[in-house]
Amino acid sequence: MTVPRWGPAALALALTLALGACGSADGNQNVAPEPTATPSPEPTAAESAPTDSAPPGCQPDGREYRLSPTDAAMGLRALSVTLTNCGPSAFTVNGYPAARVLDADGEPLDVTVGQGPGPVTALPDPGPRRLTLRPGESATATVVWRNTYNDLSRPPLTGTWLEVAQHPGAPAVKLRPDGPVDLGSSGRLGTTAWSPAER
Q1: What is the pTM of this model?
Q2: Which pLDDT band holds residue 173 (cuts at 50, 70, 90)?
Q3: Do 131 and 167 touch, CB atoms closer than 8 A?
Q4: Where are the domains positioned within the chain?
Q5: Where are the residues of the annotated region Disordered (predicted)?
Q6: Is CATH 3.30.40.10 what the domain over 53-196 is classified as, yes or no?
Q7: What is the pLDDT of residue 52?
Q8: Cα–Cα distance between 63 and 48 in angstroms, integer?
Q9: What is the arithmetic mean of pLDDT over 135-156?
Q10: For residues 162 and 67, is the Cβ–Cβ distance under 8 A?
Q11: Which range among 45-49, 58-62, 75-79 shows the weakest confidence by mean pLDDT?
């Protein structure tokens, strides 16, 4: 007698039918298989990023501050601060932003911040002018510094945060640039005056 050859699919089907018959013969219902545990998905970059690195958003006074990526070239660093009117009423901007460099713990570093980029670089400064920002409108200022180390008597200064305000004495926000505020031994930062943001 010739024994039939069973393929894998036919064997699996025969085994399933046989087990089903056994279950019904002794009066027991078929038991569903145990659910297999699925691993939790890995958090995305946005979920795993520290919350304190995100921009703080619209403030109670109707101001929102954001930083551009840092442009680094030949020891000169520059980034833009954008101030947006996110409130319901217009307000006036005039002069220079206030800025402080903070370490990783939020403590201020011994940094001299000048009105105008002159002590740091020859970058043009538009100079103070009166700007009215209506809801949704923005102004920008540029912050510049150098990563130079030529004074061995001072440890290099490296900041993690940049605290900015519309002007000295105004409510300030703490923002985290995309890289360190690496001042070397210069200990000096300069800002341009506020100017209308490009649309």
Answers
A1: 0.71
A2: very high
A3: no
A4: 53-196
A5: 26-59, 172-199
A6: no
A7: 54
A8: 27
A9: 90
A10: yes
A11: 45-49
